[in-house]
Amino acid sequence: MASEGRYGYAIDKFDIDWEARTITCPQGHTTADWTPAHNAKNNPVVRVRFACSVCASCKVRLLCTRAVKDGRSMTLHANRIQYQVLRDTRQQQEIPQWKERYAKRSGVEGTLSQGIRAFDLRQTRYIGLSKTHLQHILTAAAINLVRVDNWLTGIPIAKTRISRFKAIKPKAA
Predict the structure, then answer these.
(1) For the whole model, what pTM was predicted?
(2) Which end of the chain has fewer CB atoms surrounding its CB within 10 Å, N or C?
(3) For 32-86, how does the pLDDT look when each residue is reduced to its tens digit (9 = 90+)?
């Protein structure tokens, strides 16, 4: 996992003590506040905050937070097991084998997107499992025929769309 987040230290660089309800930063400072709360989806979370006075005098403040008046704050899953599973999963996503395996998903997502956009796959036209199954088979055949026709006529495969924010992201040095 990345040792530094987009704007500074990533959460994996902090030591979390679930029993004592504290977090220690890479510089050895400990949190001032550990507050149970709920996020926008009403899931239980813990909001953690470092004291402003501690962060204000820190030598590496710019590596840790962009906050001007307050200290570093973080939001964690309230459940330790959920937090650890999420952390472990994110670490696995950095492994080349995982990325290679996940790349196959983009082809599946592209096929589903084409089926929904070009062939109205989101809703079935028929009632009953056998008729719905037949519609899915015919839609899959139609997608294949369109792709073969595009290949034979030289129509290139569409590029993956890139968000405006990703398009203006500076290239890594």
Answers:
(1) 0.57
(2) C
(3) 889 999 999 999 999 999 888 888 888 888 888 877 788 888 999 988 999 999 8
Q: Which residues of 97-106 are buried (b: 16+ CB within 10 A; e: fewer)?
A: eeeeeeeeee
CA distances from 128 to 71, 75, 138, 164 (A): 59, 46, 16, 42
Q: Average pLDDT of the chain?
A: 86
Q: Which amino acid would we find at residue 117?
A: R
Task: Kindly give the pairing relationship between strand 73-77 and strand 22-24.
Answer: unpaired
Rounded (5°) CA angle 82-87-92: 125
